[in-house]
Amino acid sequence: MSQHTWFIIAIIIYMAVMLAIGYWSYRQTDEYDDYVLAGRGLNPFVAALSAGASDMSGWLLLGLPGALFVTGMSELWIAIGLLIGAWANWKWVAPRLRAYTEVADDSITLPSFFENRLADRSHLLRVVSSIIIIVFFTFYVSSGMVSGGRYFESTFGAAYIDGMLIVAVITVTYTFIGGFLAVSYTDAVQGTIMFVSLIVVPVAGLLFLDHPGDIWTWATSHDYGPYKDGVGNPTYFNLISGVSAAAVIGNLAWGLGYFGQPHIIVRFMALRSPADAKQGRLIGVGWMLFSIAGATFVAIVGTVFFGQNPDIAIVDQKSYETIFLDMGRVLFHPLIAGLILTAVLAAIMSTISSQLLVTSTSLIEDLFKLLKKDLPNENVMINLSRTAVVAVAVVAGVLAINPSDSILGLVAFAWAGFGSAFGPLVLFMLYWRRLNVPGAVAGMITGAVVAFAWGQSPLSDSLYEMVPGFLSSVVVTVLVTLATKAPTSEITDRFDTATERSYGAAANPDLDFDKAYKKA
């Protein structure tokens, strides 16, 4: 069989597994809370890999290795910031959010938690935050579909629209039928594929070389990739070469975005108990650390692999983002290479499904339920959520048919926008007893506006908009909260209860704290 045929077989196997998980999840889903949040029964392994896979997307497999291959280790600062941010998110947000969302009227979305945490009877917090999620995640989903179409276009020579529709239909199908459980378990499988691929490709590449030790010297003194003058890239292993202090701060600040990403922190809300956050942190941060290390070694090994073998062509001769795929294609049997190719597809689809479900859930849980006084039964609510999944996917698909720079530009802003608008707010919600509604609303809006305005101005060339957006949100939240009325004793008592629950679970990880709490 031809290489192309083997690749198609690998893709079919992958798609079949995703649909099978969707069907299994459908059989496990009986109630609305199951569809939206897996009944708060997600084990830490699935939660950790699901959060990682939905976060990293194709950047980990394509963008990061390509940037490190071309420029060198000075491109690692974003990865370092993300690693620190992921650790902090699991450490400080996960246990408290899991405890507090249950105490706060069993909130199952981030906007509903914001409202219930502060007893916001105006519903302003819930409506504004849900609109932000719906608008930007719709564009995010659209961008993922664009990536899927381009993946099939470049890998198989298929028409862009055909590839986009294949990715959209499969992803929407398992999300539609299985809900949060399907999204989480498919993400876990996809995260495993990404992890294994990022380990085996650089190891196989290293074994392929006649002199593996060359990986530490080749890039700094020999031609490879874009370097063709015989001296290579002498500063390849220098972390600070050509990087300003502002650039380092801005790149590290990417980690601040984790605190405000709804599709990531919703996994914390779905954990079985606050105590599971500790195990989830070890698994999730470990997964990310080894995956980033794998991507880094793909680039380092790649400098020698392609430099010593100029007859092996790198498909992407501009940004060299295909080095991971090209190494896999050369080193392995076509079936294995095809499965490695699915790692990129897995990264794309895991992000689409997570954001698609969060967006559709916000439509039903945060907007529809506010408008509808008499709620329908569980089955109708599940079907409404499924309808919302299709509706969001259709809108995103229409946007993806003719992709534009404006869509991609909004996606670039979304990480900083969510991080600036929701990041400080989540931390204040969990750790500041004095927080009130005016401070929360003012800080959220300020963070989003400053991040957007900064990102659209020439200032963004000097400093990533996450830094001013996040800091301005913190300052405004504190000033407005202190200048307005303190929260009621009902709100502060609930804060104390949630704090006790998160501390109690951390101190007694073997205790079924939920059962003990309900009994008390």
UniProtKB/TrEMBL annotation:
Q: Record's GO cellular component, any one? A: plasma membrane
Q: Which UniProt keywords apply?
A: Amino-acid transport, Cell membrane, Ion transport, Membrane, Sodium, Sodium transport, Symport, Transmembrane, Transmembrane helix, Transport
According to its UniProt record, where is this protein located?
Cell membrane
Q: Which GO terms describe its biological process?
A: proline transport
A single Gene Ontology MF term assigned here is: L-proline transmembrane transporter activity
Mark the transmembrane ranges. Answer: 6-24, 68-88, 124-143, 163-185, 192-209, 236-259, 280-306, 335-359, 380-401, 407-428, 435-454, 466-484
At the top level of its lineage, which domain of life is listed?
Answer: Bacteria
- Which is an annotated Pfam family here? SSF
The cross-references to InterPro entries, in alphabetical order and at most eight, read: Na/Glc_symporter_sf, Na/Pro_symporter, Na/solute_symporter, Na/solute_symporter_CS, Sodium:Solute_Symporter
Entry's family note: Belongs to the sodium:solute symporter (SSF) (TC 2.A.21) family.
Q: What does this protein do?
A: Catalyzes the sodium-dependent uptake of extracellular L-proline.
The name under which this protein is listed is: Sodium/proline symporter
Q: Which organism is it from?
A: Corynebacterium vitaeruminis DSM 20294
